[in-house]
Structure formats: C-alpha cells, structure tokens
Amino acid sequence: MLVHSDTRIFLLPASLESTQLDIIQLPLANKSVASFLVKENQVFELKNLGSKNPWLKNDKSVTLPRTGGAVKSLIIETDESGAVLQSPDMIMATKFDLSFIFITIMAESDTFSKRYISYQDILDTIGSQNPWINDLSDTLIINCLGKICETVVENQETFYKYSSEKTAEMLSEKVNKLEKSISNSSFVINDTIRQILHDPSSANLEIPSDIYNLAVMQHCIDLVCCYIPFKVRESVIKKMGSDFSPLDAYMKELKQKKKALDAAEQAMNEVAASTANAKKANAKLNGKANGKTKPKKKQVAKVAVGKGALDGFFKRS
C-alpha cells in the first residue's frame, strides 16, 4: 500500500463522475479570486474543507498540531490497489450560480445598464479584462444574462441591459427559498442564531419569535449576498421590505446587558480575590498574636566521655 503526502482529494457530485472537467479562476465581489469547475452548462465552486470551524466555541475546538492542519488520514482501497493519504486537502465541489459573477461585474459599471447592447459587445467588454469568459459556453452565459438583464429582440438578435430591479427580485427569491429551508430544518446555523440571541440575564430561555425570524432572514440575506457588491445587497433588502430595526434594538440592548454582566462578574472576582487575600493576612497576624510561633529547642551542654557524674561510681577502687 502506497503512502502519499500533500495530496488533494476532490469530493464531486455523482453527476460529475467519469467526466472531463475544466478548472477556471473567477473574480469575487471582495476582489479575491476563487476556483470553479465547469462542465458544459454547470459550474461548481471548489471549497477547501480546512480544520477551522467557525461554529465551534473555543472550549470545544479541536486541538491541532503545531502545523495548524487537521489530524486526519484517509485509506483508499480498490480490488486491485490502495493508498494511505497523510493529511490530504479535502476539496468539495458545490453547485454555483454563475449569475453572481455577472452581477458583480455588471452592477459596478454603467456600461451594461445605460442602454441595450448586443451579446457580442458584452463578451468583448467583459473579456477585455476577464479572459475566463472565453472558457464558458454561450448557453451558460446567456442563461445568466437572462436572469439579471432586460432583453429586446431586433432583427433576430437579442440585446441586453442590466436591470438592478430584476436582479434584486431574483436574489430575493433565493433568500426566501433559503429561509424556508433553514426554518424547517435542524441545521447548525439555527443553534448558532439562538446562541447569538440568548439573553443571559433572563431566566426565560425562549427567544421572541419575531426577533428570531428576523435574525434568520438577516443570515439568509448575508449568505446569498456574500458574493455580490454591498449596494446590491441593500437593494435586495429594500425589495423584500425587510425592517431589521427591532432586531438592531434587541441586539443593542443585549450587548448592554452582557457588558453589565461582565462588569458585575469582574467586580465579584475582584471582591473574592480581595477577601481571600485578607483572610490569609488575618490568619498570619492571629498566629503571631496567639504565640503560635515554634518554641526554641533547649540547648544541652555536651559532656566529655569519662567526665560524667556516674563515671566515678563505676571506677575500680
């Protein structure tokens, strides 16, 4: 059995088995670049499953080696051969809507929203700074443009104009779908939201339902809109008519309560430490006052051999 290190393991959907795949680099709204798999008219984002889990509290986090990586190994076997993989990189492919990439590009430039432009002009404009667009199929690109652009057809040619209204509506549908999925499930994010909203100063463990629902909605908006510019996120909130002011007020009050509890806990710890020190000092003083000091040993004079009081009695006459 072979032993390998620094190996990458890709976890792919069953639909991608025995298929030639292309990996391309696409820009994100935060100016970073991510890797994606492309198969005909489908795109999959590649996510590295690292050892860090943001949902775990510090006291429950896994102890890692000095290298910072997770302690893991994989044994892969077939009928003919096998291998042991030492700390491989686990990379998962998740389905991705390429419309997010086009939203990021088209929302930041008036070129796409001022007037209707042809499909070829869109390819040329985007392709001048993003050569990756040449690696995508026309069907995939046209499908994305149809979700976020208004279209007109003249002389059997389709022209496109970016629409912030249509984009906000499309994203709102994604948020509502995600919110429904989270609310009717036992995802870890539900426990995380409850921990954030928990009031430690209240004996009532129940969180107001309206506050909880607003928090779930806010998290869904953040998850859906994490790939796009902030101004597009604001248009989604406006489109949905969401008012997060009650949640903001609740979180502000909760922050003040937690701050007061922390101050009270710190004061109690200081009082406890001061009391303990005072008890030690009093015990030391009381010991001296009651004469509990150790008595000195009485010094006994040493007598030379043959000079004792009974030595003469045993002498021969």
UniProtKB/TrEMBL annotation:
Keywords: Coiled coil, Nucleus. It is found in: Nucleus. Pfam families: RNase_H2-Ydr279, Ydr279_N. Residues 247-284 form a coiled coil. GO terms for cellular component: nucleoplasm; ribonuclease H2 complex. It comes from the Eukaryota. Residues 11-97 form the Rnh202 triple barrel domain. GO terms for biological process: RNA catabolic process. Residues 100-236 form the Ribonuclease H2 subunit B wHTH domain. Its main location: nucleus. InterPro entries: RNase_H2_suB (IPR040456), RNase_H2_suB_wHTH (IPR019024), Rnh202_N (IPR041195). Non catalytic subunit of RNase H2, an endonuclease that specifically degrades the RNA of RNA:DNA hybrids. Participates in DNA replication, possibly by mediating the removal of lagging-strand Okazaki fragment RNA primers during DNA replication. Mediates the excision of single ribonucleotides from DNA:RNA duplexes. This is Ribonuclease H2 subunit B.
